[in-house]
Amino acid sequence: MACFLVSAAEAVVVKVAEKAQENVEKKAEETSAESKVHVPFSRKLKWLSYMLWGGVILLAFEHIWHGEVQPFFPFLTAMESPASTAEMLHEMATVGVAMALLITAVWGVICVISSVLEKKASEEKDVATE
């Protein structure tokens, strides 16, 4: 019903954190002359943002397709009665949170793999320069 709203809320928070991290990295880049193989954390946050927004768009489309979202107030059909609102909140707390956690966990695995590849590339670069 509205499980995509949980991922949308996380995506907004991640986007704000991404922009803040970009500013921090720009300031650090100005003061540092390090030439190391490295994917900035802001780019990794951008990956998470893309994953979350992609899921939100697909789920919102699916909910619109099934008539659970409407273009007039109360927008979500589940908000028309207190019983269906309670069901919607339960779905958001279970399914929505589980989906958001799964997306974040997959992103975490991607970040670990990226860090391993960065380390390997950095070691190869060090060997090549010797």
Keywords:
130 residues; mainly alpha; 0% strand; elongated
**Over all CA atoms, what is the radius of gyration?**
20 Å
How many helix segments?
Answer: 3
Number of strands: 0
Please state the average pLDDT score: 89
Distance between the termini: 59 Å
The portion of residues assigned to helices is over 70%
**Uncertain regions spanning at least 5 consecutive residues:** none
Task: Tell me the overall shape.
Answer: elongated
The sequence of SSEs as H and E is: HHH
The description of the largest β-sheet is:
none
Beta-strand percent range = under 5%
Question: What structural class results from the helix and strand content?
Answer: mainly alpha
Secondary structure layout:
Elements: H1 4-31, H2 41-65, H3 82-129
Describe it:
The protein is mainly α and 130 residues long. It has three helices and no strands. It has helices spanning 4-31, 41-65, 82-129. α1 (4-31) packs antiparallel against α2 (41-65), α1 (4-31) runs parallel beside α3 (82-129) and α2 runs antiparallel to α3. The longest helix is centred in the C-terminal third of the chain and has 48 residues, at 82-129.
Question: What is this entry, summarized?
Answer:
The chain has 130 residues and is an all-alpha fold.
